[in-house]
Each structure stands twice: as structure tokens, then as C-alpha cells.
Amino acid sequence: MIRFLKDRGRHRVALLFVVAILSIGGCGVYSFTGASIPSHLQSVAIPLVEDNSVNTLTALDEQFTEMLLQRFVRQTRLRLETTEESADALLRARIDRYANLPASVGGNEQATLNRVTLAVTVTYIDQKENATLLDRSFTAFEEYDPADPEQGLTGEVEAARAALEKIADDIFTAATSNW
Questions:
Q1: What are the pLDDT digits (tens) for 69-79?
Q2: Residue 111's Cα: distance from chain center in Å?
Q3: What is the pTM of this model?
Q4: What burial class does residue 35 get, using C-beta atoms within 10 Å of its C-beta: 0-12 exposed, 13-18 middle, 19+ buried?
Q5: Among 36, 37, 59, 67, which lies 20 to 30 A Cα-Cα from 175?
Q6: Tens of pLDDT along 102-135?
């Protein structure tokens, strides 16, 4: 009797696994990163991100472009196309706002924490079907201690990078989970 119950439990688990896999298949092509890409899209172009923000940091546009490439090309089956015209999909991003402001002030009226906030606008277009898949803004922030002598300017740089990582994750999730 005990063996029958154990076998029955295994069959339920196997059946649930098969049902889960089959239900995923109806929404497009699924990868185990959680990304779902329509089957007719084979390539993507990701031009250098525009940086329209006013900030003192350099290369935010290049760093953010690399973050998007990591997600859309290396975590999906999409291949990178170097020309926008020949790509099946086009992902454009623009850094619109950068702020580095005190988030917490101590007793001596000096900032004990600064908050770096970034806002990015993204457009993701299915060029084969001439459809906009995503067109919206994303915002994220990260805090750092400006008084920490070990951090110095690197605290701001690391906070900006962490905020961009969050935004890149949010863009990837929004662009690949609507199927």
C-alpha cells in the first residue's frame, strides 16, 4: 500500500511538470531565464544608449548599453544585428534624468546618505510586424555614504551602476513577459 502511494505521488509530480511545460509553450518561445520572445523575432539591434541627463559621470551610456546587450542577446535566443534596418526588433533607450541628492542628513547638517536616481525611457519595436512592444519610462535609485573616505567618488559611480542594473532588469522583464 505504501509503495502504491509513493508511485502515485511521483506520477502527480510528473504530470504537473508536463502540464507546466505545455502551458508555457503556448505563449511564444520560452527560455529558462523567464524570457518569452515571439517566434518570428530572430535578431535585435540595440544602438548606443543616448545620455540626455546632466551628470558628472562618464560612460553611463556605454555601461547601460552593455547591460541591455547582456540581457537581450546573451539571455535569449536573439542574435545581435549591427544595423537597425536589418534587425527584426529594435530596442532604443535614453537616459533622461540623473540626480544625486541627499537622502539623509545628520546632526551637523551634512548628508549621511546620498541617493542617485536615474530615469530611462525605452522603446522596443517589432520591426517585422511594425508594432511597438514597449514604450515607457523606468526609474530606479541607489544610496551611498558620501562621507565614507573609502568610497569617495566610487560610491556615486557604484550607486549609479546599481540603479542602471535595476532599470535594465525591469526593462528586460517588461519587454519579455507580455506574451
A1: 999 999 999 99
A2: 30
A3: 0.78
A4: buried
A5: 59
A6: 887 766 666 688 999 999 999 999 999 999 999 9
By C-alpha distance, which of 52, 54, 87 is closest to 69? 87
Task: Give, as one character, the DSSP assignment of residue 49.
Answer: P
Sheet strands (E) in the chain: 29-30, 36-37, 43-45, 50-51, 79-80, 89-105, 111-126, 131-144
Dihedral of CA atoms 168, 174, 177, 179 in degrees, nearest 10, equals -140
Cα–Cα distances in angstroms (integers) from residue 59 to residues 26, 46, 73, 107, in the given order: 41, 16, 21, 35
CA 174 to chain CA centroid, Å, is: 8
